[in-house]
């Protein structure tokens, strides 16, 4: 077995046995080099494997920190509101509405929502708090032709509940893209990033039953809290 894998397995044992519990800062690369009498490159490979397997997060300016391996499952394939997710996972959660406004579609929104330039669009920016930490930033854009009215109260509760039960819209399917990005200034201002150097972004275009595209969303997640899951079936 390559030496970095031997070191990796020893470090995993310390994490799994709770010798290094969640939020523990690992020894520095230099310290681990001395402990295991090996090269810095070997230590770096072991730490990279730990990060890849979800045991640690490398935080700029802080080093490597043990993260909670019991992440929340975030369903990628379904269309689930934050309120439904929090209820299903039995999480203490609430929503902060940072922005609610009608904006004119620029070229990017024109492309995302398949509308005309300067058409009216609802812009909703909401920070989602779970267990007291702001870990999701949702940026939603709704075609005003389909969603003529929104209020802060609706946005604090559940927009989908309002759309389906009051406007009687039939939300049907979504096209999604998942990317990892560096945090924007807005992310840093509105999320509790705790030094994390990336965010996981789910970009969704959401359609009604008649195939009308009515919503574009960027859901920006702190990487340590969620495991993005899907169900797949082999089709021959």
From TrEMBL:
<dbReference type="InterPro" id="IPR036390">
    <property type="entry name" value="WH_DNA-bd_sf"/>
</dbReference>
<dbReference type="InterPro" id="IPR036388">
    <property type="entry name" value="WH-like_DNA-bd_sf"/>
</dbReference>
<dbReference type="Pfam" id="PF07702">
    <property type="entry name" value="UTRA"/>
</dbReference>
<dbReference type="InterPro" id="IPR012770">
    <property type="entry name" value="TreR"/>
</dbReference>
<keyword id="KW-0805">Transcription regulation</keyword>
<dbReference type="InterPro" id="IPR028978">
    <property type="entry name" value="Chorismate_lyase_/UTRA_dom_sf"/>
</dbReference>
<keyword id="KW-0238">DNA-binding</keyword>
<dbReference type="Pfam" id="PF00392">
    <property type="entry name" value="GntR"/>
</dbReference>
<feature type="domain" description="HTH gntR-type">
    <location>
        <begin position="1"/>
        <end position="69"/>
    </location>
</feature>
<dbReference type="InterPro" id="IPR050679">
    <property type="entry name" value="Bact_HTH_transcr_reg"/>
</dbReference>
<keyword id="KW-0804">Transcription</keyword>
<protein>
    <recommendedName>
        <fullName>Trehalose operon repressor</fullName>
    </recommendedName>
</protein>
<dbReference type="InterPro" id="IPR000524">
    <property type="entry name" value="Tscrpt_reg_HTH_GntR"/>
</dbReference>
<dbReference type="InterPro" id="IPR011663">
    <property type="entry name" value="UTRA"/>
</dbReference>
